[in-house]
Amino acid sequence: MDQPIVLPGLLELDAWREQSRELLRRGIEPGRVEWFDPRDPQGVLHATRAGELPPAGGPDRQLQLPRVPRDFLNLAKYVLCHRDPAKWPLLYRLLWRLTHGEAALLSDAIDDDVAAANAMTKAVQRDAHKMKAFVRFRRVEGDAGASGDGRDTSERYVAWHRPDHPIIGLVAPFFARRFAVMRWTILTPLGSATWDGTEISYGPPATRDQAPTADTLEDFWKTYYASVFNPARINPAAMSREMPKKYWATLPEAQIIEDLLANAPGRTQAMAKRAIGTEAGGAAGYVPRLPADTDASIALPQLAEAAEGCRGCDLYKDATRVVFGKGPADARIVIVGEQPGDQEDQAGEPFVGPAGRLLDEALEAAGIDRSVCYVTNAVKHFKWTPAPRGKRRIHAKPDAAEVRACRPWLEEEIGRIKPDIVLLLGATAGQSLLGAGFRVTKMRGRVLRDTPIAPAVVATIHPSAVLRSPDEAARAAAFDELVADLRVVADLLASS
Ligand code: URA
């Protein structure tokens, strides 16, 4: 009887993948491996050393390692975050079977191993969803001063959360994107994560008393929650299912839910009045930053209202107003520009100035009706510098931090509309949604399919680039190229 092979169970997908590939290369069957929790100090004492593993099956075997389906890796990412140590033998067994004649295994939902992995995935996804929804940051004192990029480093935020599974590594990247401009730490009894504005570092488990309990942000959250609370949708049973009691202690808004429910009929009336315009809709004006997981039932107009209070960067200080997106909530195309210009800033609507008129012309030439598109911008405030003489305000390009700070609003818009196609106009829109490596010249006119943003994404130049053409001939050529790219969108629309 062969000696069991005892290995540390790994939590991180890439490391786990490497370890499993090594086992496969050496032809080690699942029944021979035992895993221990790497946090268990006793486990290490029994661990099998690398030198004691059976030899690999030779270079041929390495070359022949079958490809693992992408679905399996996606499943493994979640299963590895489950708290049950049975996940390690389960995953390796699945991997072994997938690579030993059962390539279609994952589609057999009643197979015991597949069913167990699916159940673990569901539990972890539910836990991750709750963490996104219920983490609440509180401000604490940090180091005085400002960072190199001008951010105030004296602001720090800390949250305490109690997940059921060790999901901090799974969820922290979401918070890094969503709260990119804050410096924050999330403490949990299963590990902690800190974002310094550039990268995430992971730390040890924490206890409740390490997290602050109250601060001035509390009022912001309460007011925000009161503003987005939609009494027309209230279902108390579903609410307590969605917001289990164990999270209530850390939720400022939990303290006001009863009052909100008590006042619900009054608020329903007020909301209805506002919707039909008989009561002035006041700006929310107090949301410091977009909450982690805004309720998907919050409609676009309320989201736009909440954006008026955004202080994620400094652009609000010199702009007249937030210019949110405009168009049908079920638009099949979302068009994303850079930022409102001078006229948009005054009108409060995107693309109504010279670039907007050119966009209208180009859309018409391509056969796209603008009224069925939702038109918005990567950055919602006008950034400008004063002209050397006179009162003119000169457009200034938003920097990477400003684009990052605004991205959550854009993601929320697209997330609600769920368009078939997202059309990106220019580098800022492209970099906001596709990353810093995006280049219009390389990407224009191509269709990116099945992206996390939308089923199809197309990029083209910004209409202002046409307006900046040095002469009439160059302008006509640039316009024709823009229209050609827009025809790609028109064809997609017609065929989907
Ligand atoms: N340019 C943009 O990118 N967006 C506008 O809304 C107007 C001009």
Q: What can you tell me about this protein's structure?
A:
The protein is α/β, with parallel strands linked by helices. It has 20 helices and 14 strands. It has helices spanning 13-25, 41-46, 58-63, 70-79, 87-98, 112-134, 168-178, 217-228, 236-242, 245-248, 257-262, 264-275, 300-307, 342-347, 354-366, 400-417, 426-434, 440-443, 463-467, 472-495; strands at 5-8, 33-36, 138-141, 155-160, 184-188, 191-195, 200-203, 333-337, 373-377, 384-386, 393-395, 421-425, 447-449, 456-460. A hairpin with a 2-residue loop joins strand 5 (184-188) and strand 6. Helix 4 (70-79) crosses helix 6 (112-134), helix 5 packs across helix 6 and helix 15 (354-366) packs across helix 20 (472-495). The radius of gyration is 26 Å and the shape is globular. It starts with a strand and ends with a helix. The protein binds uracil. Uracil is lined by residues 337-341, 344, 350-351, 353, 355-356, 377.
Please provide a brief summary of the model.
By secondary structure, the protein is an alpha/beta fold.
How far apart, in Å, are the first and last alpha carbons? 60 Å
Give the radius of gyration. 26 Å
Bound molecules: uracil
Q: SS-based structural class?
A: alpha/beta
Shape: globular
| Low-confidence runs of at least 5 consecutive residues | 143-152, 271-293
Tell me what portion of residues adopts beta-strand conformation. 5-15%
Which strand order spans the largest sheet, edge to edge or round the barrel? 3-4-5-6-7
Number of helices: 20
Subunit arrangement of the protein: single chain
How confident overall, as mean pLDDT?
82
Query: Which percent bin holds the helix content?
Result: 40-55%
Number of strands: 14
* Largest sheet descriptor: 5 strands, mixed
